[in-house]
Amino acid sequence: MIQMNLKSIVTIAALILLTGCTVAPKQAYSGPRLEPKAEAVLSAAGQHSAVGFDTKTFIAKVDGVSMRDTGAALAGQMFPYPHMVYLTPGRHTIELVVALGTRYSRGDVWFVAEPGEGYTAKNEIEGYSVKMWIANKRGEPVGGIAPPQK
């Protein structure tokens, strides 16, 4: 029989909860990881909204492949998707999820990733609509709206 003291139980419980709160960046291509100058990085920006709640943006799919983190889903995370993915250069279709409290919106965008570049998935909430786009390092929109992924 294994005996554990209260301190060990609390430590293990805290580690489980902390692990469930974040999803690590994910490699969105097969094979070994490329050098940073050979791959592109897409990160998702959160922002403070006018109504006082923070919006969070998640990367749900890349080119039709789910980025869902099973461990985070099992830990009870409502949106078990990463905030950052590593991509190969070229055209990609991205499904974004924008969450505001317990409400969320999904949208598909496309862009052409350049090697060694960083991009940010951005959003803007106006009334009942949510705009989503990808911006380069200079903040300029790149790509466009894509048909929904299957």
- Spatial sequence of strands, sheet with the most strands: 1-6-2-9-10-11
What number of structural domains do the residues give?
1
- The poorly predicted ranges are 13-20
What summary fits the major beta sheet? 6 strands, mixed
DSSP strand (E) fraction?
35-45%
| β-strand number | 12
Structural class: mainly beta
| Euclidean distance between termini CA atoms | 49 Å
Q: Please estimate the helix content.
A: 10-25%
Kindly state the mean pLDDT as a whole number?
81
- What radius of gyration results from the CA coordinates? 18 Å
How would you describe this protein?
The chain has one domain. The protein is globular. The chain is mainly beta and 150 residues long. The longest helix is centred in the first third of the chain and has 16 residues, at 6-21. The strands form two sheets. It has a six-stranded mixed beta sheet with strand order 1-6-2-9-10-11, with no helix packed on it. Strands 3, 4, 5, 7, 8 and 12 form a six-stranded antiparallel beta sheet that branches. The protein has two helices and twelve strands; from the N terminus they run αβββββαβββββββ. The chain is 14% helix and 44% strand.
